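Example record

Each entry pairs one chain with its bound ligand, NAP.
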Amino acid sequence: MILVTGATGQLGRVVIEHLLKQGDAGQVAAFVRDEGKAADLKAKGVDVRMGDYDDVASLDRAMKGVEKVLLISGTDLENVVRQHGNVVDAAKRAGARFLAYTGRAMRDPSAPKSHLMEGHFETEDLVRESGLTYALFRNALYMDTLRYFLGKGETFETDIRLPSGHGKVAYALRVELGEAIANALLREGGEDRVYTLTAGEAWSFDDVARALGELSGKPVTYTPTDKATFEALMRGRGVPGPMAELVYSFHRDIRDGQLDEVTPELEELLGRKPASLEAGLKSLFHL
Ligand code: NAP
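C-alpha cells for the complex follow.
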C-alpha cells in the first residue's frame, strides 16, 4: 500500500491519477484533511484516510498497513517542519519500509533567500535521519507559477517587471512532476535516492517574454526591477507586505542562479522529454 499525503492538493491528485493508471486502486491510500474534497478519490476506489499533519493520532491511524509513504510538503509556513516531522515519525512507528518527500531543487541548499526553501532542506534531514529507505524529490519551480508571476491569471502581463534579473529557471510543469514521482514510487527499489527533477533547459524572463510574444503575436517585454520598485508594484496590486517579501525572496533566488540547474532525471522518469517553455506556456495560457 502506498500512502500519498496532500492528496487533495494539485500535485497529490496528479500523483494518485498516475498510480491508478498503472496499478490497483486498492493499493493506493490518500491522507486528506477535508473529506468533501476527496469524494472523487473515494469513488475511484482509493482508500481515503482522514487526518492532519498536526494530529499525531490521525497519522498513526493512516499509516496502518502502509509500505511506502509519499509526504507531499505542506503549506503552513511557520509550522511545516514540525508537521513534516510528525509524518516522518508516524511512518517509522508504523514500520513503513520507504519514505519519499517532495522538496525543491536548489543549487546551494545552504544559501536560499527564501525561508520556505529552508523548511524543505530541514525536512530532508529528518527523512535522512529516519533510518527508512528514502527518495527525495527535489522539484523544480513549477512552470505553473508563471501564471502568478505574470500577474493576470490565465492571461498575461505584456510589460513584465520582476526582480529576477536575468537569472534562469529550469521550470517543470506540475503535471509532469506528479507523473514522474508516481513512476518513481512504483519502481523504487531498496536504495536511497535523491532526484533533482528539472526541465532539460533553463529560461530567464527574457526568454519567457520572447516566447510569449512569439506565441501570442503581441509585443511582450521584460524589465528587471529592483526591490523597491517590485514592492511598490505588489502594493499596487493589493498584495500584503509579508507576501510581497516572500515573493521577492523567490525572485532573489532566481536572480542568484539558484534555480538554473538542469538534470536528465525528470526525462528519465517520464520516458520522454519534459515540456519545453513554449509547450508549457501554450498549455498554461491556452495559446
Ligand atoms: P497545494 O495544491 O496547495 O496542496 C497542498 C496539500 O497539502 C493540500 O492537499 C493540503 O490539504 C495539504 N496540507 C496542507 N497542510 C496540511 C495539514 N496540516 N495536514 C494535512 N494536509 C495538509 O500544493 P501543490 O501544488 O499540490 O504542491 C505541493 C507542495 O509543493 C505545496 O504544498 C508546497 O509545499 C510545494 N510547492 C512547490 C512549488 C514548486 O514550484 N515546486 C510551488 C508551490 C508549492 P487541503 O487539500 O485540505 O488544502
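The longest strand covers residues 98-104.
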